[in-house]
Design goal:
alpha/beta, five-stranded parallel beta sheet, 15% strand, 51% helix, 9 helices, two-stranded antiparallel ribbon, Rossmann fold
Amino acid sequence: MLSNTLITVAIDGPSASGKSTVARKAARALNFNYVDSGAVYRGLTWKCLREGVDTEDAAAVTELVDRTRFEWFVEAGAVRFTLDGEDPGAQVRSVPVQEHVSDVAAVPEVRTRVVRFLRDTTRFGNLVMEGRDIGTVVFPDTPYKFYLDADPEERARRRHQEMLKSAASDTTVDKVFASLQRRDRKDSTRKTAPLQIALGAQVIDSTTMVAEEVANLVVKQVRGGLTEQ
């Protein structure tokens, strides 16, 4: 390691911009732990849907979060968690969860608690964390901030391909595009921690780039910054 200081790399951006793949590849190359902040909100959304909690009822969602027991651990280079002893696994990527997660993520009290959880993951060491407010809210002081974006049609195509690989689905690219547009609108207009480019973040348009190219760019920037310290 080139520095003894704890390092957090923040990778933000809208849905299907390539954050997860790039963050995982960058973490592996840097030998850092990977954190998917969105998985926490999706996990809580899964919990709400499973227990019949209305995701548009902020008080009910907050109550569920307050009584849910989180357990954090590192597995295969990634920081993971269980909710009341259960791992929601691939269910956090289900269509119902994706359609309701913005409601849960928009609750201020939920975001406050999740931000605290995410900051505490630094106890596991250096991190590459991806999400929507990592560089603006969770770790605003990190010098390693990136904002990934891509053409909306390309993002819809990518997400559609992911859905076809992960589970049988009869959805179409047009339906996925409409869903992403709704998610973008909710994320960028919510009152608490809206999706936006962090001050000082390097913006990367990945529309015509493969994940390896974007990850290599992130790794190069981080290593360059560490060398200068």
